[in-house]
């Protein structure tokens, strides 16, 4: 079956075509970074309007790349939450309308489930069960994944997520938008030993995270004295080292606690090279394996939504009737 996936939860419009027999046929993403850069962050109303402008051209693009037509689509999966309400409604409305016109089922998909399952699109995918470290935007969670729709929360952040901490710290340091990737890039050339930032909850004895205090420690350092560019680079390096150490340590504890030997890392922060390097070393020492999605699938995209929808169909999830829909800006993954 050919499944169309539509992602519009925040500031990327993503569409993709996934065939249950042939795999991923085509996917395309439009990023709104240039649109929101002048404001220093995502403006929800502008995001929604841009999704409206992009969704039809992107659909035409993936259909052309896949060499197929609308009538070949057998189901449409779309992100129903969590995310920005207006942005979600654009994708949901388009998906449900198209599904009704084509007389095919429409399937609302949880955004984080898309990220969680995205490593399964790789040439060397993990097998169930596994531990998943979800580090996507406003989410930092550790999950035990026993199968499609079988998710057990092991631990999550009590305040700021890792991605939020990256972005907020970048803003404190006067970096551009989006700040997180710029901070990570600067960190690669810095000397972390120059500063000593805390490793929040590193030895808490559980699988919870907390990164707001780390952000506050950076703010204290910035207010203490006017920093040179070289000092900012070193502070970036120490900040990244602190987050990476905590994420890697907790992920390894989760593997040990569950007695599993496979770790999946998904979400935008999963593309961070320092985090990948730490997890590669840590899992190898623990006799485990770590799996990542392709770099182009770490950020929000339609491919992960199409794939998650296809998996739901394959494993017999109930598909709702096309023509009536709602979105869930707040939606816990355990409720799926």
Verbal overview:
With 336 residues, the chain is an alpha/beta fold. The protein has two domains: 2-116 and 297-335, 2-Layer Sandwich (Nucleotidyltransferase, domain 5), CATH 3.30.420.40; 128-292, ATPase, nucleotide binding domain (Nucleotidyltransferase, domain 5). It contains ten helices and ten strands. The protein has helices at residues 33-37, 44-66, 85-102, 111-117, 162-172, 179-187, 212-224, 229-258, 273-285, 302-314, and strands at residues 2-7, 12-19, 23-31, 75-81, 106-110, 130-136, 139-147, 150-156, 262-266, 289-291. Strands 3-2-1-4-5 form a five-stranded mixed β-sheet, sandwiched between helices. A five-stranded mixed β-sheet has the order 8-7-6-9-10, with helices on both faces. Strand 2 (12-19) and strand 3 (23-31) form a beta hairpin. Helix 2 packs parallel to helix 3, helix 5 (162-172) packs across helix 6 (179-187) and helix 8 (229-258) runs parallel beside helix 9. The longest helix is centred in the last third of the chain and has 30 residues, at 229-258. The chain is globular, with a radius of gyration of 20 Å.
Task: Outline the fold blueprint.
Blueprint: E1 2-7, E2 12-19, E3 23-31, H1 33-37, H2 44-66, E4 75-81, H3 85-102, E5 106-110, H4 111-117, E6 130-136, E7 139-147, E8 150-156, H5 162-172, H6 179-187, H7 212-224, H8 229-258, E9 262-266, H9 273-285, E10 289-291, H10 302-314
Parallel strand pairs: 1-4, 4-5, 6-9, 9-10
Antiparallel strand pairs: 1-2, 2-3, 6-7, 7-8
Helix pairs in contact: 2-3, 4-10, 5-6, 5-7, 6-8, 8-9
